[in-house]
Design brief:
mainly alpha; 4 helices; elongated
Length: 106
């Protein structure tokens, strides 16, 4: 594996750890009971919705990262899944979980 791909893989693994920690905090934040006060309860429920959205987005990114890591391990990482052409290193550095070359992404 080239140094550039090793750096991308390391960055993906680091991002994965960050997302797993975030998901853990989101889950623990949503388990808390709501207060008896109605106005506080409304704010708490709104906070729950925000936490749920953050959790969903984090889970989506985590899924993309896992697929990218699998593609690195299988040797398919630099190949576009649509046309089979190479994905440029600059594109992979900018969007490390992409599976499309710039032409197919457009």
């Amino acid at each position: 594996m080239t140094t550039d791909l090793t750096n991308i893989k390391n960055n993906l693994e680091l991002r994965k750890r960050v997302l797993l920690q975030r998901l853990s905090r989101v889950k623990s934040g949503m388990i808390q009971e709501h207060s008896a006060d109605w106005s506080e309860q409304a704010q708490e429920r709104q906070n729950d919705e925000v936490l749920e959205a953050i959790g969903n987005e984090s889970q989506h990114e985590l899924t993309q990262i896992n697929v990218a890591l699998e593609r690195i391990e299988s040797g398919d990482y630099t190949s576009c899944t649509d046309c089979g052409e190479d994905i440029s290193l600059k594109r992979l550095e900018a969007v490390p979980y992409t599976h499309l070359c710039i032409n197919c992404a457009e």
